[in-house]
């Protein structure tokens, strides 16, 4: 008997479950993208054939409601019956799901049918984070267990129902991920592991060939065939095994690419291409190299060098005018030569003499300054531009390229610190020395003068330390004691020879005042005082003291004293309900001083206080709703109207995923940019040009110039660069970029394709000819093919046909669903099929005129062009014998398919934004191998 499941008075075993009408019920919001995913997923599951090795001959039916539910108070009877007759519930999770009453009702009702368990519920995440988009009904389940007395009790437990994740920065990329991720849904439906299912699906045809060959070999061996024939068979089997291995490497390359291991993915794809003497074709490897190297584009943003550390990288930078790269991980700090990738030196606690220290070795850099100038190359022609698609809530366009930056940090030195020691490192040679030499008199004040060290910290981006004055005890010679007199030493431009010394008395605060200083100049000093008074009451204040003759006037009334947080020792409510405001960070920004604090039960509000720096007069308070803020070293920017030509001074708050623009003097919101992923890097010019790099790998350029007082329409910006993969950190210097993923740093450059030959527009028609000898016509309505199509459609084997033709002795069809079919010689069924693209709502308006099939120099191959989507012309080079895709050409804003020359065997590419055309060869496997090896040798 199967495992029994109790549902109210109703009990059913597993066999009865499997006899249900539907394998799964898809629950989703009836929003455009949610529906696209639901339609595509249903198609994948209903056309899926389980691998023979699993011995499960199942053909699934999947329920998907086509209409919104009626405005009634309960689920309709049809929906209830469908849920009752479904073995699994698949929930498509997007940001709007929690607001859907009916989706939540469907989940609750399905759970009630299954003992309030989520065991048969699968979630497909298409947008956002699970914690934000999963409704409560998905996140708990009930289990029945026995207590100590042996009684059965129900226990409510938290669960994580996520089965698959196709979140990406565009709908196209999400649907592309669904091509393989749907197997994560299919695996539990088959009660098997995803990894096994994926490998079996990818290798289905190869395994079939091997099985046939293996069977022949066994039979032949059994009847004692001649050894010479056996040798031929064994050689053929060996060849097939080699081909399978190459295909496995190509699949592995795709995995690496998706995981952001870019150089490793290209190297693996190159290794997956057989050598010429191997006498075999591995189209999956050819396709992998063509896609990853972008061989049909004029220029590609690709990694040319890789630097690797031991563990997760937390900091990275260009130093020595871009000639070197420095990075930090948990084991130490690394310095490489940028061009060669050679490791100059690794700095560790052991080398610096602190092997057993609990302190970490830390990398410090000079304070980053505003850029002076940016040179941009305008690529857009005729005012056209293309939106980023899934970028932000604003309009982000392609059309500009950064070609030169003035004012980038030279970083001739970087700094290392550990346990109150500070070293200055020459970024070219890697040699290091103490930041400053301890004064002989100051050494004399301490018993162990050789190891005495100062505690350095940064104030206003410059190194500073406390200088304590001592005196010798009159009764005990050689014993030195503190006088209570302190000085603050600030090293200008981090030069140990340029000192600004500020005096202050520290008896009142027992030596802690130095740690409380936030900013200092010749006129004013800002501090954050956090303390308990004599009654045990706590307060956190921002205080500003005047500075006169290099002395901090702490004995005079402060210029500013503002309480950020306070509570009585007798009032403990702040512990159980921490809604009170808390200080987080403060910094000087030009002529202003900005204090950032947070408040709210979950610190979901961020408040900025802006003061005139010299007078400490408050200018404005700005409050925004944001759970997390950007890195502390740059929490805000201020732009003066005389620099930006704006009607007002602009305050820019930098949050985790947002930029908030407000009027500086009033705090009034102007507008905000909300990004799809977190901000990892901000660079800017004082004239209001901002460069924002995101975790999704995109770098945007935004303009805060000549803005209106009120946001009447969306702001806009430009996509300047795109790593096309998620990154953890990034930096740029001139035309070099570095992107960090985990423990690897990749150096990127724009590489020109030497095989791309630009041509003038007046020659384009030569490669778009309508000559019948160059293209296969559409014979869908012919007397020969039309009856075949109608019969196959009656059997439900093919969709609506957009193009068909008989090539050789086989008929080939291309359907509206994006599937390319090969019909068997008897014209009775589909022999093989491959999916070229996913079916979408837009496909409904496609016509056969949008499809062109080109004859190539190889009679066993065609070039199928699809122009059904606006500004998205692409083509597939298909091998008809193996029914495999060799290349997908186009589908990129940088260049799209535009034509083909059979005589020259070259494809015509177009960048419609720039109105430029170029030719690229239809590469052979040998040519691709040569290109990949050349790239590999360059990175090595």
Number of strands: 59
Helix coverage percent of residues?
10-25%
Instruction: Please describe the biggest sheet, giving its number of strands, its sense, and whether it closes into a barrel.
Output: 6 strands, mixed
Shape: globular
What is the alpha-carbon Rg in Å? Answer: 34 Å
Beta-sheet strand percentage? 35-45%
The top level CATH class name of the domain at 5-201 = Alpha Beta
Spatial ordering of strands, largest sheet: 17-18-43-42-41-40
Low-confidence stretches: 1-16, 68-72, 205-225
Report, as a whole number of angstroms, the end-to-end distance.
61 Å
Structural class: alpha+beta
Rounded mean pLDDT score: 82
- CATH domain topology of the domain at 5-201: Rossmann fold
Q: How many alpha or pi helices?
A: 17
CATH second-level architecture of the domain at 5-201 = 3-Layer(aba) Sandwich
Task: Give a verbal description of the structure.
- The longest helix is centred in the first third of the chain and has 32 residues, at 227-258.
- Helices cover 20% and strands 37% of the residues.
- Residues 1-16, 68-72 and 205-225 have low confidence and may be disordered.
- The chain starts with a strand and ends with a helix.
- The chain is globular and about 115 Å long.
- Among the domains are: 5-201, 3-Layer(aba) Sandwich (Rossmann fold); 204-295, no CATH class; 436-495 and 497-564, no CATH class; 757-922, no CATH class.
- The chain is of the alpha+beta class and 940 residues long.
